[in-house]
Write a structure and sequence with these properties.
This protein is an alpha/beta fold. The protein has a single domain, classed as 3-Layer(aba) Sandwich (Rossmann fold), CATH 3.40.50. Helix content is 40%, strand content 12%. It is globular, with a radius of gyration of 17 Å. The chain starts with 23 loop residues before the first strand and ends in a 10-residue tail after the last strand. This is SDR family oxidoreductase.
Length: 269
């Protein structure tokens, strides 16, 4: 997929209001795409950021450097978040680095298209669910003892959890599990003052899309995002205000909900 289609903006023109001042946020998959854009916005809003990532040291270094250029503070820890022990390490790393956790953004993702369901291997199914669904629950489990009233959990799912996808069956299923667990966690935590919500993006230009479809038919590249009413995919920075809204501790009565940022593809919720 053409690299020029992905706007890896550092949100230089983002207008912050300081709503996350004094907060500490863990963001998984925070060194690229949506997670990186959210990390930039959170830093501009005053939060200290801890990034969990798998690889790409160059992108991680750029992310940390950009946040520091805003006068923010950020640290990063690499590892496979599909494994519970790494999720435990990330939570402890955040506590050791900044002493608290106020916001947990479960954003890391993995997808691999298969046009024929019989070609979906055991390994692919496990990896997809580990990164999307298992990691979310592992991190919530590890972070929960340290979350106080006003804390926020935000989960990045997908439009595919609601409408399905013929070539991303396991991915749609893993996101569906994430939606269900988000609602269940919200019901469990609401009386403790902890809100659990999510974002279900439609097509968004990210490096994950490049890795996913880059080896397939070029027609898939040209057609990406053209099927939604907006007629185009989003750029990561177009989603960040929703993540800031859900992270704001003053947003105290919204929980168990998903914001559908998908260019007009209306979902039944």
């Amino acid at each position: 997929m053409a690299e020029g289609n992905f706007d890896n903006t550092d949100l230089k023109d983002y207008k912050a209001s300081g709503v996350l001042q004094g907060k500490v946020a863990i963001i998984t998959g925070g060194n690229s795409g949506i997670g990186q854009a959210v990390a930039y916005a959170y830093a501009k809003e005053g939060a200290k950021v801890v990034i969990g990532y798998l690889d790409d040291e160059e992108a991680t270094a750029k992310t940390l450097e950009t946040i520091e250029s805003y006068g923010g503070e950020a640290k990063a820890l690499s590892g496979d978040l599909g494994k519970s022990e790494q999720c435990d390490k990330l939570v402890q790393f955040a506590l050791d680095s900044f002493g608290q956790i106020d916001i947990l953004v479960n954003n890391a993702g993995y997808q691999y298209p298969q046009s024929n369901p019989v070609d979906i291997t055991d390994e692919q199914i496990l990896k997809t669910f580990e990164i999307k669904a298992f990691a979310m629950l592992y991190l919530v489990r590890a972070a929960r003892p340290h979350l106080k009233k006003g804390a926020r959990i935000i989960n990045t799912a997908s439009i595919n959890a609601y409408r399905g996808h013929s070539d991303l069956i396991d991915y749609a299923g893993a996101n569906g599990a994430m939606v269900s667990m988000t609602r269940s966690l919200a019901r469990r935590f609401v009386r403790e003052g902890i809100a659990v919500n999510g974002i279900a993006p439609g097509p968004v230009w990210t490096p994950l899309i490049t890795k996913t479809f880059g080896h397939l038919d070029p027609a898939l590249e040209e057609g990406f995002g053209k099927d939604v009413p907006a007629g185009r995919p989003a750029q990561p920075y177009e989603l960040v205000k929703a993540y800031v809204f859900l992270a704001d501790s003053q947003n105290s009565y919204m929980t168990g909900q998903f914001l559908h940022m998908n260019g007009g593809d209306f979902m039944s919720t």
